[in-house]
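Task 17 of the worksheet. Students: predict the tertiary structure of the chain below and write it out as structure tokens. Keep your answer in the requested format; marks are given for formatting as well as content.
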Amino acid sequence: MITTLNKAYTAARPEDAQAAPPGLTGRSFAITAAGLASVAGGLGVNQPEVWTVLAVETSGCGFLPDRRPPILYERHIFSRLTGGRFYDGDISAPAPGGYGPPGPHQYDRLAQAIALDRQAALQSASWGLAQVMGMNYGMVGFADVETMVAAMCDTEDAQLAAFAAFLKSAKLDGALRNHDWTSLARGYNGPNYAQNSYDTKLGDQYNRLSAGPLPDINVRAAQLYLTFRGFNPGPVDGMAGARTMAAIQQFQQQAGLTPSTAIDDSLIQTLLPG
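Model answer:
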């Protein structure tokens, strides 16, 4: 949950891939049908409502090409958690800002903060599909921020579960069920939500998604795992377009697999990250 800036992460692109440093990657598993159904059912909503928030927060993708979850590092949170003792105007400052581009750059900033105070640094970043702040680890059911970050690095299902837990803890699940985008925007993105048209973006995304089609879980997983492997399936959006099919064919050829256009569990198992 970003309280000061509504950013739009570009879905994972292979050209942005780079080796991830140890400690902030996990299995990097994509959303499953069971995980999505569990979260939607627990919140009392349908899939379009869930995809709506994810689309606005991170363009609907919970991992970068290097398999780390997308983050946004908040210098003012770090300053507050450390009593301002590391003030430098960039990594630690009382006012929000200085974000720079999304993606790996945010991890560069986080690494600098970790060198000063690891626990405060991890709490000062928002994590995963729904950008849940590390400082809210208790609200979303974790004993500490390290456990939360490990879960965010492990699966998008865990990221989804944290999103649902936050909505319930913050009593925002009703706003999502009622499509009260203004209340949801204020509670999820902070009092300055209107500066970024956060509520309007939520409404627009819901209108689009409720009219269909919704992301296909298998297609989306294939796109994510192909990206990890350096292929170019296009955006991780669950829509099987020409680039996705071409990337699948390239993977099958390189892996010596029988060519097939089926995007099913068998293909997903061959693509799973090791």
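Marker's comment: Residues 217-271 form one domain. The chain has a mean pLDDT of 91.
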